[in-house]
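Late entry, evening session. Most of the bench is empty. Finally got around to the prediction I had been postponing all week. Sequence below, unchanged from the version circulated by S.P.
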Amino acid sequence: MHIMEGFLPSPWWQIWWLISIPIVIYGIYKVTKLTKKMPEIKPLLAIVGAFVFVISALKLPSLVAGSSSHPTGTGFSAILFGPSITGAISVIVLVFQALLLAHGGITTLGANIFSMGIAGPAIGFAIWKISKKAGIMPMIGVFAATAIADLMTYVITAFQLGLAFPDNGSVFTAFSTFLGIYAFTQIPLAIAEGFFAVLLFSLLSKYKGSILQKLGILKIPTTTNIKKEVKT
């Protein structure tokens, strides 16, 4: 969800810019390093970037003035590339949306990058890693990671708005109010995004399986497994 242009007062929009910039710079470094090591990854980066742009551009009016609700797509990006690269991808997406679609804004870019491109994806990435270690089916892990990343994005956004607009001096009261309002739209959106991410993951596994194996997303078949498949 995007906080719209001019909605965050000083010093909050500047603070979120300062927090987000170092992480984005590190993400750009990681992208450069990854593409040098694996040049064949560039089409997949483009596909994921396009996915994030399209799905997060599905803007729905929010009951919270100065904001909007939408899927994010960044949880899926975090599964494939990690949260730092996802932060770099989100910058491109959010700048284009702000300039071309009047969705979000430049002054609020730092806050939107942090919530949608850094914090939410980082939590989704952690969920994905936990699900892999627990031996949970990949599709279930993808659904959980992307849905929770979406939900945590709006939790962070509610917190950002609570800090900027405390209710009678109470950040917690304002945070609770924003969170309760967002829940009406974001919970069903998060569930829908989880199912959509599972579908995309299935397609990538089928057509880009070798790249996903190199990224450590899918297990590389062992010699024993290959022999069993041949015998079958």
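Two things to note before I forget:
Residues 171-207 form the longest helix (37 residues).
The beta strands are 60-61, 68-69.
Will write this up properly tomorrow.
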